[in-house]
Each structure stands twice: as C-alpha cells, then as structure tokens.
TrEMBL record:
Residues 447-474 form a coiled coil. This is Flagellar Assembly Protein A N-terminal region domain-containing protein. InterPro entries: FapA, FapA_b_solenoid, FapA_N. Keywords: Coiled coil. Residues 71-245 form the Flagellar Assembly Protein A N-terminal region domain.
Length: 529
C-alpha cells in the first residue's frame, strides 16, 4: 500500500490511509448501527482508497491490515481505555473532542474525565511518548459475603512446631483447645446483600447476595445475639472445643475418627478424655487429663493419662516408648509392651515379652492368659492362666508393695549416713569432750556446733530405724494379702519374687498359688487342685 501519512501515529476516522497496490492484505470494514467494527477501515474497490472508520493505529494481524482503535472498552465493560498521542497520521494535533466522539460512537453513556484526558494530551505533546489512561469507569458489582463462623480461640498447629534450631516436629501440634464455662468460642457473621454495579453503557450489573450458613450447635453451647447483628457462641461447661464444618460444641471427650498418625499429629488434651476410633501409630503420643479409649491397636507410641486406658485392639510396642496411666490399663493383648499403672492391668489375651509395673493387680485370666517372658511387678497380686513355656523362657512375676514412706525414709537414711561420714572425716574419733580438748581454742566454737549437728543426726537416724522397722513389719503382714496365682501351667524358668525372697521353678507346676508367709518370712507354694 502506498501510504499517505506516518504509520507511527494514529489515523483519524475518515482519514485516507493510502492506496492499495494489492488486495491480499485487506479485509472489508463493517458498521453495525453506526458503530465501527474491525478491521476499522474501508477499501474502495474502484479507487483503491483505504480510509479509517475509527481513530487508531495501523497494525498487521495474521497478514491482514487492521486498525487498533485509540478508544477501547474493557472486556467486562467497566472501563473505557484510551491511547493518547501528540499528533495524528497526517501530523495534526489530536483534540480532546476526537476521544469524546470515539467514546460516543461506542454507545458509552458515562461522561469521560476531561481533566485527566487534557493532562494526558499535554504529557504526550511534551514528551512525545503515547499516554495510556482510563477515560471513564463504571461501578463493579459488590457481591454479598456468605455467612461466616469465626473461631475466637487460638488454633491448634496444623503442621508442626518449630524448634530453636529451625527444625520442625511434624508430630507436635500443641494442645487441643479447652475452655472454662462462659468462654466465648466463636462468632457468626450473617450474610450480606450484594450491591448492583453499572457498566459504561449505563446498564446494571447484577450482584449475588451472600448465602446463609446456619451453625449447628452441639453440647454445652449457648447463643448470645449481639447488637451488631452477629451471634456469639459461649461455653456453658468446661471441656474440649470442637468447631468444624459449621458445627460448634464443647465436650468432655475428644473424638478422633481415624488413626493417630501424621494426619492428626500428637494428641494433647489438658481437660477431658480422648476416644480414638482407629489405632495409635508408631512414634506418636497421646496425653489426656482423664481417660483414653482406643478402638484399634497401640503400636510403639507414648501414652499418658490420669485416668483409665482401654485398648480394644491390643498393644504391640516393640519394647519402645511407654504407656503410663493414673488408673487401669485394659487391652486385648500386650506384646513387647512397657506399661505403668496406678491401678490394675487387665489383659484379656496373652502377655509376651512385656514389662509391666502396677500398684494394683495384673490379671490375664481369659483367652490364652499366658505370660511369656518379660517382667511383671504388681502390688496387689498377679492372676494368670499360664507362666513361661516348655522351652524354659525366663519369666519374672513379682509382688512388691508400694509404700512411699518406706522409700522416703530409706533415702533420708542414706543422706544422713553420708553427712555423718563427712563429719567424722572432719572431727575424727572420740567423745565430744575429747575432740574439743584436742581442738585449738580459736576453732572450738565451730567444732562444738559440728558436734551438735552430729548428735542431732544420730538422734534422727535412731528415729528412722524405728520407723523403718515398723513399716517393714507392716509390709511383712501386708504381703500375705497379695498372691501369685497360676491357674494352669507354671513352667520351669519362671521366677517368683515376693518381698525380698525369690524362687525359680525347676519343674512344671499345675494350678498353683504362691503367697507370703509372714511368720516364716518365706514364699509358700500351695496347690489349687
């Protein structure tokens, strides 16, 4: 095409662009109801004149000549954008009215910002750089907000806790939230209505209203309407907080629907109990203020609770970690387990290579009821069906009473003896009078005080001896009330210990009871047949 102007600048509507020397790169322009349409030019087939139908820049798109309009409407019809040049295709200044007419030709009804347009024209003329600006803007619709439940309590960690060295313990998620009565737990914000928008053609743009999301209230929750239209949810009892999927409640039991594993992290509740629907996997822990129920199995995990523990699927720990309770432990079986209980330990099946210590009784009287390997220490008795095996597996069954005063006095006795030994090294042997006579006059006051301390220690040691004698006598008679009962076979290799006496079986016994004889201070073996 033979050009009639400078293609680096825009042509105005009706401007002669040039004369076509070939028809290949041209497409006929169209107009719908007076509104220019792409490619924004016309071609006279007789004269081969090419004229612009809208202000714009010439451009080749796909090998075809097109005019890129100076004034354009955004795809969402919310703004009119313009490219402002210092002069046009023929070298003439471009007045503001050119942009006003182009906007009107696009059927835009909103007024343009003339101040902004004039400033852009001045900048383009001063700098020679085209300016991009928004001539006018509609109003976008404002959709309403959906109803929202906001938690007011500190959230439990969802990933893990970061240590001082920067590493992350992915199992440690912190404690599950718990509250006292009257604690605000959550606030519900009701949905809001949408506000309609306005496009550049003056048409309304519809807006969505927010959707109400009703809150399902569980136990121990009260609703408190607020003046701002929100609703506050408060706890009516002490317990664990459960806010999930639009429901809110306070319970004394934390329910875990599946396993305790990487999806849950370690479980820590500072009030109430825990109910696990699945199993507790290796390396994880549960700590509860009250009771714990596990419907599956417990692997090599750490469990600590102040109440009872019930494991319906059994315990298999591989000799690692520890289960400690302030109450009873009950399980289907125990294998390579390490258990400590303030109450009884009740195992419905067998106990294999496990180490159990309890202040109550150890009972394995159903199913196999066998204790094979390991060690059991109980204060109130051991009742099982079978001990050891025909292969002579070493199995220890011990009755040891829990007398805290005895331990305290024994430790105090040891401490006093150490103090006496140090004083003897300083003072030497002899009566107090003889020691003082050998002491230099300037040191006698200090030595006299050390002698008085030694006398008080000796007096306290005598008191401890008497009290230990009384407690040991009490222990001797109390031991007689705790028995080791083996209702079926007691195999060789089984070791029975009661108090400070022990015996190892060298032959198989059937249906036998081992008890303490306080008179003889020996273990008695009594047949149950």
């Amino acid at each position: 095409m033979d050009l009639s102007g400078d293609p680096d600048y825009p042509a105005m509507a009706g401007t002669l662009l040039g004369f076509a020397t070939s028809l290949a790169p041209f497409a006929a322009g169209k107009s719908a109801g007076g509104t220019p349409e792409p490619p924004y030019y016309t071609l006279d087939m007789t004269t081969r004149e090419v004229r612009a139908t809208a202000p714009g820049m010439m451009s080749m798109v796909g090998g075809v000549l097109q005019i890129v309009p100076l004034v354009r409407i955004s795809k969402d019809a919310l703004s009119v954008q313009a490219s402002v040049y210092a002069r046009d295709y023929r070298g003439n200044p471009i007045p503001p009215i050119t942009y006003q007419r182009a906007t009107k030709d696009l059927k835009v009804t909103l007024p343009i910002d003339m101040h902004r347009l004039n400033e852009a024209i001045v900048r383009a003329q001063e700098t020679g750089v085209p300016q991009e600006l928004v001539l006018c803007e509609g109003k976008p619709p404002k959709h309403g907000s959906n109803g929202k439940l906001e938690r007011l309590l500190t959230e439990r960690e969802t990933v893990g806790k970061r240590a001082e060295d920067g590493s992350i313990d992915y199992r440690d998620r912190g404690a599950h939230p718990h509250v006292a009565e009257g604690t605000p737990i959550a606030r519900y914000y009701p949905p809001t209505k949408g506000e309609r928008g306005l496009d550049v053609f003056g048409g309304e743009i519809p807006a969505r209203d927010g959707t109400d999301r009703p809150v399902r209230t569980g136990d121990n929750i009260r609703e408190v309407p607020q003046e701002d239209g929100t609703t506050l949810y408060e706890a009516t009892a002490k317990g664990l907080v459960d806010v999930s999927k639009g429901s809110i409640g306070v319970s004394t039991v934390l329910l875990i629907q599946g396993d305790v594993d990487m999806s849950t992290g370690n479980i820590l509740v500072e009030t109430g109990s825990v109910h696990i629907k699945g199993s507790v996997r290796t390396g994880f822990s549960i700590t509860a203020a009250s009771h714990i129920i596990v419907e599956g199995a417990v692997e090599s995990a750490m469990i600590n609770c102040n109440g009872d523990l019930e494991v319906r699927g059994g315990i298999a720990m591989e000799g690692r970690n520890l289960i400690r309770t302030g109450g009873t432990i009950q399980a289907a079986y125990a294998q390579d387990a390490v258990l400590e209980a303030e109450g009884d330990v009740i195992i419905n099946g067998g106990i294999t290579n496990s180490f159990i210590t309890c202040k109550g009784s150890v009972l394995a009287q159903s199913g196999k009821g066998i204790v094979l390997g390991g060690s059991i220490i109980a204060a109130r008795g051991i009742e099982i069906l079978e001990a050891g095996s025909e292969l002579g597996t070493q199995t220890a069954l011990t009755i040891a009473l829990d007398i805290p005063e005895l331990d305290v006095l024994t430790r105090e006795q040891d401490t006093i003896r150490q103090q006496q030994q140090r004083l003897s090294q300083w003072l030497g042997n002899g009566t107090p009078r003889a020691i003082l006579l050998k002491t230099a006059e300037g040191d006698r006051r200090i030595v006299a005080e050390m002698l008085r301390v030694r006398a008080r220690l000796e007096e306290r040691l005598n008191e401890i001896h008497k009290e230990l004698g009384r407690l040991k006598a009490l222990n001797n008679h109390s031991l007689a009330r705790s028995h080791v009962i083996i209702k079926k076979e007691a195999h060789p290799g089984t070791r029975i210990k009661i108090g400070d006496k022990a015996m190892r079986l060298d032959k198989k016994n059937v249906a036998v009871k081992y008890q303490w004889d306080p008179q003889e201070r020996q273990i008695q073996e009594i047949s149950l047949i």
